[in-house]
Write a structure and sequence with these properties.
Blueprint: H1 2-11, H2 15-44, H3 49-57, H4 59-92, H5 98-110, H6 113-124, H7 131-136, H8 145-156, H9 158-171, H10 174-181, H11 186-215, H12 218-224, H13 234-243, H14 247-283
Helix pairs in contact: 2-14, 3-14, 4-8, 4-9, 4-11, 4-13, 6-8, 6-12, 8-11, 8-12, 9-11, 10-11, 11-14, 13-14
């Protein structure tokens, strides 16, 4: 009883403290999340639906939308394959250099996206290390779609791996070892044992990776060259329109990005809810009934 009483004293705050914390959190969310989103949609519709749709119907806007979707469609599957492989190696095996591999996975989190873009210019640019060879063979990377895809892959590849590594480490490898003992090969073990256990974490990582791929600005800005209608993604197109004082068109495209972010948030919340529900169901499975009961 004494321990319970002490615990209650330590973990229970006064009503005014709880209310103040809740009010502070709600005020922060309103000022830094709800209000900016409302401002984006308000400015986009300031001159009516006609001007809003006109801003989205511009060929340069469609080109930016298409390039953004193409970039995400290439970067996310590649990061999916890398994330699964990296998480499998780090979580399931012990080997020399494991800490170094983990550090490399975290590298894009600590490197500025602008610096990442500059490194690609240094390697693949006209005056870069591989630039003369690429130019001789007619291959264009910088100021073209390949450079944008490479920069996007660099800034997004930790998301899936970082979501899966702690999940796989917590699950251990007993189930995989049991499957191998029963005669399953590596692919069967992954498909029927590992993948069902990590599917919701995998979906969560893919959602985050896709959101960052569509919204990336810094690294893409360096390698794109800002060629209107060719190498501008949606964030870059918004910047150009805003600098040209085309505020309605800029906010129209920005509102589309915001809608994509909101859809991503909804899918992320559903994935989290399904993951928590699956974990709770697994933890509360009833004992099997005996045959014939």
């Amino acid at each position: 009883m004494t321990a319970l009483t002490n615990r209650r004293v330590i973990t229970t705050e006064a009503n005014w403290v709880r209310r103040a914390l809740i009010a502070g959190a709600l005020a922060f969310l309103f000022l830094f999340l709800v209000l900016p989103l409302a401002a984006v949609f308000t400015e986009a519709l300031r001159k009516g639906w006609g001007a809003y749709l006109e801003g989205l119907a511009d060929p340069a806007a469609w080109s930016a939308i298409r390039l953004t979707l193409i970039t995400a469609a290439i970067a996310v599957p590649l990061n999916l394959a890398f994330g699964i492989a990296a998480a499998w190696c780090i979580a399931k095996y012990e080997f020399r250099g494991k800490a170094f591999l983990t550090t490399l996975v975290d590298l894009p989190f600590s490197v500025s996206p602008v610096v990442a873009g500059l490194t690609y210019v240094l390697v693949f640019g006209a005056q870069g290390w591989l630039g003369p060879w690429l130019e001789t063979h007619g291959i264009k990377v910088i100021f073209a779609v390949p450079g944008i895809v490479l920069a996007t892959i660099f800034v997004t590849f930790p998301f899936i791996a970082r979501e899966l590594i702690p999940l796989m480490q917590a699950q251990g490898n007993e189930e995989e070892q049991a499957a191998i003992v029963l005669g399953a090969n590596g692919w069967q073990t992954f498909w029927h044992v590992t993948l069902p256990n990590i599917k919701w974490g995998l979906i969560y990582g893919v959602i985050l990776c896709n959101a960052r791929a569509m919204g990336e600005f810094g690294a893409v800005s360096v390698v794109s060259g800002h060629i209107r209608g060719q190498t501008n993604t949606m964030p870059l197109h918004v910047e150009i329109l805003y600098n040209e004082y085309q505020s309605v068109a800029a906010f129209s495209v920005a509102s589309l990005l915001a809608l994509l972010a909101l859809v991503t948030l909804v899918i992320k919340s559903v994935a989290e809810w399904r993951q928590e529900r699956a974990m709770a169901a697994t933890a509360e499975l009833p004992p099997e009934r005996p045959t014939g009961a």
